[in-house]
């Protein structure tokens, strides 16, 4: 099964200034994890659909938060 | 996502929490939910189901299409209960649908437990799962299976049924041994099991 990998990180608490920096740090750390760096994840939903349309592949979408698995 | 353009994408695609892993087609339509292990093998298996579903649709194989939709959680428990034996389904397909129903019903039970304040609710479900087990109805998705065995163990402890408790513990042990905090959890359950055995009801 060939897929386009789409990665969505929703940091919903970013509106709270006191924790924004901490969340950004967690997001940065997460984006450095091997399972994310070893695959060409696309973080732009429109681009993922465009790529899937061009290649005939399905999209494998991963919804997460900066502090979730 | 880089901006707030798709802030509600999770709920649009049927997600209720994180992490949420799904397959989408090029138009963004939900093609299947991932409910197997979060491993390469698990993702590959779900991907194969998504491909099989597309093939079944092309061939007009309605029974197989329905079974695959159930296996990919595109049909919920209520939907499966309405059509437990699709027209033209083989015994093997009906059997797969039974397993899919067990998985979907546990997920439905989990939803029902959200916000539940009655501590006996889990034990009541555990009793139902003990009956399922006797009837050979056992879920297979990791999350459904884990919930099934944990609540069954809660019931077994309340019912002072050491043998049933031990069966649940043995079912969960391989997975929990590898989890953070899992060995401690196992140790606590071993202590409960010891007490149940001492109390003598096997």
Features of the shown structure:
A: 69 residues, alpha+beta, two-stranded parallel sheet, 3 helices, 43% helix, elongated, B: 202 residues, 9 helices, 4% strand, globular
Describe the 3D structure.
- The complex is a heterodimer of chains A (69) and B (202).
- By secondary structure, chain A is of the alpha+beta class.
- Chain A has helices at residues 17-31, 34-37, 45-55, and strands at 3-9, 58-64.
- The model of chain A is unreliable at 9-18 (pLDDT under 50).
- Chain B is mainly alpha-helical.
- Chain B is 63% helix and 4% strand.
- Chain B has nine helices and two strands; from the N terminus they run H-E-E-H-H-H-H-H-H-H-H.
- Chain B has helices at residues 9-12, 40-59, 62-71, 77-82, 91-113, 120-134, 142-158, 162-176, 182-199; strands spanning 20-24, 30-33.
- The longest helix of chain B is centred in the middle third of the chain and has 23 residues, at 91-113.
- The interface between A and B is medium-sized, with 24 and 28 residues.
Report helical residue fraction of chain B: 55-70%
Strand order of the largest sheet of chain A: 1-2
Adjacency order of strands in the biggest sheet of chain B = 1-2
**Topology pattern of chain A, helix = H, strand = E:** EHHHE
Which segments of chain B are poorly predicted (pLDDT under 50) over 5 or more consecutive residues? none
User: What is the 3D shape of chain B?
Assistant: globular
Cα distance spanning the termini of chain B: 54 Å
Count of runs of 4 or more consecutive helical residues of chain A: 3
| Helix-strand makeup class of chain B | mainly alpha
Helix segment tally of chain B: 9
Taking all Cα atoms into account, the compactness measure Rg of chain B is 19 Å
Largest interface: A-B, 24 and 28 residues
Unreliable stretches of chain A: 9-18
Shape of chain A: elongated
Cα Rg of chain A: 14 Å
Helical content class of chain A: 40-55%
Q: Could you give the distance between the termini of chain A?
A: 24 Å
Major sheet summary line of chain B: 2 strands, antiparallel
What's the total count of β strands of chain A? 2
């Amino acid at each position: 099964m060939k897929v386009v990998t789409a990665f969505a990180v929703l940091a919903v608490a970013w509106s709270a200034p006191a924790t924004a920096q901490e969340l950004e740090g967690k997001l940065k750390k997460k984006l450095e994890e091997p399972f994310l760096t070893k695959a060409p994840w696309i973080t732009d939903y429109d681009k993922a659909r465009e790529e899937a349309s061009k290649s005939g592949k399905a999209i494998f979408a991963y919804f997460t938060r900066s502090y979730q698995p | 996502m880089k901006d707030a353009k798709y802030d509600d994408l999770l709920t649009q695609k049927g997600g209720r929490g994180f992490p949420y892993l799904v397959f989408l087609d090029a138009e963004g339509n939900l093609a299947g939910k991932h409910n197997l292990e979060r491993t390469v093998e698990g993702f590959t298996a779900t991907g194969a189901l998504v491909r099989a579903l597309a093939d079944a649709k092309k061939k007009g194989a309605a029974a197989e299409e329905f079974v695959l939709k159930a296996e990919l959680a595109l049909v919920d428990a209520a939907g499966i209960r309405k059509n437990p034996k699709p027209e033209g389904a083989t015994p093997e397909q009906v059997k797969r649908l039974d397993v899919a129903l067990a998985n979907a019903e546990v997920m439905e039970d989990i939803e029902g437990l959200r916000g539940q304040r009655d501590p006996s609710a889990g034990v009541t479900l555990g009793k139902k799962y003990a009956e399922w087990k006797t009837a050979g109805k056992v879920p297979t998705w990791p999350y459904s299976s884990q919930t099934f065995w944990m609540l069954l163990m809660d019931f077994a402890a309340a019912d002072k049924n050491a043998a049933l408790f031990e069966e649940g513990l043995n079912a969960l042990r391989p997975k929990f041994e590898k989890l953070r905090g899992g060995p401690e959890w196992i140790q606590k359950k071993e202590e409960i099991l010891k007490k149940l055995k001492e109390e003598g009801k096997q």
